């Protein structure tokens, strides 16, 4: 049996998406390479008379600007500095891949989040199995694969699991069963990651999921305010690992004010302080993405400790943008979260349940990365930026397809 051109195209796009979403965290290099191929397919749609770039701009202008702003700001800053080190812009510009990937998915007749979502349980389960194996190989007690960092590893696991849960739970008994199973596996990964920032993001997104499904009321809020601390106290008393992480954080917080600045928390506090000093001294355009010379200068001036004197970033998206790009960076930060979230907030008002679910998944993703972004430059590497860009494109293209289907039926 011969396949039609559309079937071959769908198969190719689906295969590339599988390499990015399901295998991105277990197969080194698969996500950046496959995302670029997918982007090329998106540009290729222009040559067959299917221009999805125009509706992307017309309907989702803030999203396009949000995904492009940081990369463009960094490129302009590098040009002003006459700095040829484009590696500083590489990961940020990968976010722009989302635009042609949107076009590539829109051109597909069969692919949408409804069927692409089944790649997410594969990703979550693979992250658990390969994460445990990778941690054992390098002798680490925190789960991650050999080529990933623990924090973004756990953050993306949370993103995949909560998106699958929001869309799938309640559709059928089988969907609900899979949703719960995927959630339990993801909780295991997040717990074993020992990533405190992701733990906080999990609580925030859990509250959002509960309120978005059950509706907001003061009674539910009061119940949650009571229930969450009780659960946290119970987990704390039952888990030596949680006790260790909490005690370590509080100890390092106290040590920072005593002048000891070489712990995980104290170093982050030192880098936040560095960001503040850099921003006050260079408030408009910052010092550029290469902040190492500035950090060394701050160390010699006695403002920061030796442990962070060679830091290549300040370990938080907001702080690093403020230090490296000044007020421009702060505006870009706001544009990113506002632009990326807006289409999904609008989708929440739809009368079609699937559109609402995709909207909820998109908002949940912004919540995850907003909180995690205060503990790590989550999208600071090409691999993470590539996976995030493609995931955004999948959600938005699915939203577009559902919206246009309603318009056509009317």
Characterization of this structure:
The protein is mostly helical and 410 residues long. The chain has a domain at 239-347. It is built from 18 helices and no strands. Helix 5 packs parallel to helix 18 (382-409), helix 8 (119-138) packs parallel to helix 10 (173-193) and helix 9 (150-168) runs antiparallel to helix 17 (353-372).
The chain-level structural class is mainly alpha
Helix-strand pattern: HHHHHHHHHHHHHHHHHH
The level of helicity is over 70%
Strand content is under 5%
Radius of gyration: 22 Å
Number of strands: 0
Measured distance between first and last alpha carbons: 37 Å
Q: How many helices? A: 18
Could you list some keywords that capture this structure?
410 residues; mainly alpha; 18 helices; 75% helix; 0% strand; globular
Write a short abstract of this structure:
Helix content is 75%, strand content 0%. With 410 residues, it is an all-alpha fold. The radius of gyration is 22 Å and the shape is globular.
Topology at a glance:
Blueprint: H1 5-22, H2 30-44, H3 53-59, H4 61-81, H5 87-94, H6 98-106, H7 113-116, H8 119-138, H9 150-168, H10 173-193, H11 196-214, H12 218-238, H13 240-257, H14 264-281, H15 292-300, H16 317-347, H17 353-372, H18 382-409
Helix pairs in contact: 1-2, 1-8, 2-6, 3-4, 4-5, 4-16, 5-18, 6-18, 8-9, 8-10, 9-10, 9-11, 9-17, 11-17, 12-13, 13-14, 14-16, 16-17, 17-18
């Amino acid at each position: 049996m011969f396949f039609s051109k559309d079937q071959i195209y769908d198969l190719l796009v689906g295969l590339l998406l599988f390499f990015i979403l399901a295998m991105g965290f277990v197969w080194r290099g698969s996500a950046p390479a496959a995302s670029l191929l997918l982007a090329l397919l998106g540009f290729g749609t222009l040559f067959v008379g299917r221009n999805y770039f125009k509706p992307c701009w017309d309907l989702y202008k803030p999203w396009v600007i949000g995904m492009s702003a940081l990369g463009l700001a960094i490129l302009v800053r590098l040009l002003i500095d006459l700095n040829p080190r484009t590696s500083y812009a590489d990961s940020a510009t990968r976010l722009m891949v989302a635009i042609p990937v949107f076009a590539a998915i829109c051109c597909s007749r069969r692919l949408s989040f409804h069927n692409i979502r089944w790649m997410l349980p594969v990703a979550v389960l693979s992250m658990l199995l390969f994460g445990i194996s990778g941690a054992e190989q390098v002798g680490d007690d925190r789960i991650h694969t050999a080529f990933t960092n623990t924090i973004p590893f756990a953050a993306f696991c949370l993103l995949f699991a909560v998106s699958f849960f929001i869309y799938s739970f309640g559709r059928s008994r089988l969907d609900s069963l899979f949703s719960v199973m995927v959630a339990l596996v993801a909780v295991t990964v997040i717990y074993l990651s020992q990533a405190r920032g992701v733990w906080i993001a999990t609580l925030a997104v859990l509250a959002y999921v509960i309120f978005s499904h059950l509706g907001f009321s003061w009674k539910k809020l009061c119940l949650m305010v009571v229930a969450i601390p009780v659960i946290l106290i119970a987990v704390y008393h039952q888990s030596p690992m949680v006790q260790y992480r909490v005690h370590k954080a509080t100890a390092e917080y106290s040590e920072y004010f005593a002048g000891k600045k070489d712990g995980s928390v104290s170093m982050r506090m030192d880098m936040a302080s560095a960001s503040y000093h850099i921003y006050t001294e260079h408030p408009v355009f910052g010092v550029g993405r290469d902040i190492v010379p500035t950090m060394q200068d701050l160390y010699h001036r006695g403002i920061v400790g030796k442990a962070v004197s060679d830091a290549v970033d300040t370990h938080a998206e907001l702080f690093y943008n403020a230090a490296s790009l000044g007020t421009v960076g702060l505006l870009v930060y706001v544009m990113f979260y506002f632009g990326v979230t807006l289409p999904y907030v609008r989708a929440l008002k739809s009368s079609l349940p699937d559109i609402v679910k995709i909207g909820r998944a998109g908002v949940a993703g912004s919540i995850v990365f907003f909180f995690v972004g205060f503990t790590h430059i989550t999208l600071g590497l090409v691999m993470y930026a590539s996976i995030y860009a493609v995931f955004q494109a999948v959600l938005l293209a699915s939203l577009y397809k559902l919206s246009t289907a309603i318009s056509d039926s009317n």
